[in-house]
Amino acid sequence: MLENQNYEFGPGAEEAFRAYLERRVLRPRFAHGRSVRNSIDRARLRQANRLFASGGELSREDLMTISPDDILASSVFAEDREPEDDDDLPVLGAM
Fold this sequence. Notes:
There is one protein chain. The protein has helices spanning 13-24, 33-54, 60-64, 68-72, and strands spanning 8-9, 65-66. By secondary structure, the chain is mainly alpha-helical. It is globular.
């Protein structure tokens, strides 16, 4: 799915995505393919927010690579974070 959209997982991102799916499948309203597609879309949005916030020039590889942080920032992992960890997350729609 990522390859069709010209994206790829960076080092450690595939493992983070597997951990995400293991948790997500146990939550209410998991819809298999739709939930997987939506999670990838949200990871892409977090990646775009991260790149925008970093400023400066970006390489093609930067634009194509989903990092573990783009996945681990999901609310699925919220119980693993300390409250102060959420202070660094980008606010969606704040652009």
